[in-house]
Design goal:
Blueprint (H helix, E strand, L loop, with lengths): L7 H8 L1 H13 L2 H4 L5 E2 H8 L3 H13 L3 E4 L2 E4 L1 H6 L11 H11 L2 H7 L13 H26 L7 E5 L5 H9 L4 E6 L4 H10 L6 E5 L11 E7 L7 H13 L1 E10 L2 E2 L7 H13 L6 E2 H10 L2 E8 L5 E7 L1
Parallel strand pairs: 4-5, 4-7, 5-6, 7-8, 9-10
Antiparallel strand pairs: 1-3, 2-3, 8-12, 11-12
């Protein structure tokens, strides 16, 4: 993050940053880079293709040139090397997670009302009811971030006696892939919503992990996890829930463990005054505008959930990339 604001100029720069964000997201929604992947086009040609106003399309494309995402030669617009690599849908490096950012834009626009009322007013359907496009974009965004982070998490965990892993709300399965690669003979189960599991299976197949990683569909607050796990991994989940829901979740995770097994929470871990880390303080507002009960939680709150679930030897670890882990073991 950029740190504290110390001048009126810095303040106004941040106030107006939304304009650039909106231009980039609209370019994503209109698939501009993908449409220019094969050859350049004039603004009128693109306007016809996206069924848009010609003058407005021209001004929009000019703004993308000004931002360095397009080139313009003789009235014809072309992708830059950056756009070709990251914004064309067929590219291996495509930033598909931008679809999730489009959704966040809409919910963050309700922040004032959410602060006044104390909860989301965005009237969003539940995660499982937002449609395939939203789910695929959300999982793609999470997967893009998880690859390097999975390596860093695995580096600090004790995996010596781990043979069976449960990843609660595991999405693409990226963390399981890294854990299983490091442990000979280990297997993993990715537990997620019925609408997510088919997406997960696609990631499993593409990773060549079908023999070691499987899926289980359900609601983590309702459905059974099974038993016999040595590691229950809960990444980017507790911030969605209320404190009471998290206690239920951690109790279920603890019950699913073998003796000596561990529950690992990867999430924002807040200072007791809830002002640090800055990313967590801002993310608490993301949960406010987007969920009924979500929040970011302190180390002591997470310790309490673990202690009430019968977990012991509770400790906190930090990864090389700055992610926080809370770890508790079953007696």
């Amino acid at each position: 993050m950029a740190g504290k604001i110390t001048s009126a100029g810095e303040f106004m720069e941040k106030v107006n940053a939304f304009r650039i964000s909106r231009i980039l997201l609209t370019a994503h929604e209109l698939r501009i880079a993908t449409l220019l992947a094969v050859k350049g086009r004039t603004s009128s040609e693109l306007a016809k293709e996206i069924q848009a106003d010609p003058r407005a399309t021209d001004r929009f494309l000019n703004a993308l040139v000004a931002l360095g995402l397009l080139d313009k030669k003789g009235g014809v617009f072309f992708n830059t090397p950056f756009s070709s690599k990251f914004l064309v849908e067929s590219s291996p490096a495509y930033l598909g997670g931008l679809t999730h950012a489009v959704g966040l834009w809409r919910t963050w626009n309700t922040l004032t009302e959410a602060v006044l009322t104390g909860t989301t007013v965005a009237n969003q359907p539940s995660i499982g009811d937002r449609g395939d496009s939203w789910l695929e974009g959300f999982i793609a965004a999470m997967h893009a971030r998880a690859g390097q982070e999975a390596i860093e998490v695995a580096d600090v965990l004790d995996l010596k006696k781990v043979k069976k892993i449960l990843d609660v709300g595991g999405g693409s399965g990226a963390f399981c892939f890294e854990f299983v690669r490091r442990i000979q003979g280990a297997t993993a189960v990715v537990f997620d919503l019925p609408g997510v599991v088919p997406i997960t299976q696609g990631y499993i197949e593409r990773a060549g992990m079908t023999s070691s990683v499987t899926t289980l569909a359900g609601d983590y607050l309702v459905n059974d996890f099974g038993h016999g796990y040595d590691l229950v991994f809960i990444s980017a989940v507790v911030h969605i829930n209320s404190p009471g829901e998290n206690l239920r979740l951690i109790r279920k995770a603890a019950e699913a463990l073998n003796p000596g097994g561990q529950v690992v929470i990867r999430d924002h871990v807040m200072s007791e005054d809830r002002t640090q880390p800055e990313t967590g303080a801002i993310f608490a507002l993301n949960m406010l505008v987007g969920t009924l009960h979500g929040d970011t939680y302190t180390e002591n709150e997470m310790r309490e959930w673990m202690e009430q679930s019968g977990l012991t030897k509770i400790l906190r670890k930090e990864t090389a990339g700055g992610a926080s882990l809370m770890i508790g073991r079953k007696k």
